[in-house]
Amino acid sequence: MPETxxxxxxxxxxxxxxxxxxxxxxxxxxxxxxxxxxxxxAYAAPALRLHWQLSLQTIATITSASFxxxxxxxxxxxxxxxxxxxxxxxxxxxxxxxxxxxLNASAWDVPSLFIARLLTGVGLSGMTVVAMTYIGEMFPSxxxxxxxxxxxMFGLIGIPATAYVARIAVPATDWGWRLIFVWGAxxxxxxxxxxxxxxxxxxLEHRGRHDEAEEILGRxxxxxxxxxxxxRRVASRIPNAESRRQSIGIKGLIRSGAxxxxxxxxxxxxxxxxGFYGFNAWVPTLLAEQGIPIARTLSQSFAISIGVIPxxxxxxxxxxxxxxxxxxxxxxxxxxxxxxxxGLSFNTWIxxxxxxxxxxxxxxxxxxxxxxTAECFxxxxxxxxxxxxxxxxxLGNAVGPLIVASLYATYxxxxxxxxxxxxxxxxxxxxxxxxxxxNARTLA
Length: 444
Hints:
- By secondary structure, the chain is mainly alpha-helical.
- It has helices spanning 7-12, 18-38, 40-51, 56-84, 86-105, 110-138, 144-155, 158-172, 176-184, 201-206, 210-222, 225-228, 241-244, 249-255, 259-280, 283-289, 294-305, 308-318, 324-343, 348-375, 382-396, 400-411, 413-434, and strands spanning 3-5, 234-236.
- The chain has a two-stranded parallel sheet.
């Protein structure tokens, strides 16, 4: 008799093969430009402030537009992916943010740039939510955290690459800031390669499309040396009638009993977003406000941004070694502390050193939270739950830039970094107090 396993069990038993490496490469490509585009306005803002004579409040308002768009994108793309599939949703969201980034480059005034940033945010967060779910469903449970971190490690090179493009383009000409957004649009070619990815067999199985799931599982298993040399025959165990009738989307999330986890992760993403973008989106502008020339500000920002790459590498080493919830809490506290030290000094070496440590710590943190978020929800509502958590967190930062601008105007430069520290400490407390243990579990 053939050994009967579900799609999840068959995927979890695989060794890493050319399929996984190919998927990691393609996901790294879309993350490279997604993460670069996500930070593009932070590098364009000092030049726009100079050439368009913008106030800090206007910069804050445009920054907020991105996060309103991220809320819309994450919540809609998550639900869309639970309905149309992971691969198709990934292609659509990547194409969307790339086209909208080109719209940023052609903006002619504040309202047009506001709309362009809002629409870009829709695609950026939509792509992230779908991609984190895809990684969670397609890679074996024992290496989910490692591959999430490795993919982000290569994708994160997009941040210093974008900072370097800004360092060259912005001082060269008054319209150099437009080139930053053109650079961020280069993921527009992803649909040409999307067929090299497979649809999630877990999603197909839960949609009742068992023949398609079996065909894809067969192709993936043939690329795995472990299964190719295994004499045992394997057949899919078709879910029973009750599981086939399970709801998807919001209804599926509520019926699965994962509502409390969604509330926890909404709060975690809300606080993380305030802390993360409170630092990343404002560092170049706040340094310029202290009288540091734009060229020097962008040079320091570039040096700081390099920290994201070793950060993701560290995450790939530790993410699956210890329980993720404890690692998430520890790294959150370290990031907040490094950020506070950064804010207490105007010495160039201290700024660069602790800015580097903040950037590094944030990217030790991010892959683990991405993996943890996807793990906390069942397949029928995984993208919906992850999308709500990620999206409402991004909506929270629609007010974050306004808080930063108000704190800076009222209490000064250092108050911004005290606020960032509080946000990160709240993340740690929430995960420690209410977060479930999830390492190496086969996803439902």
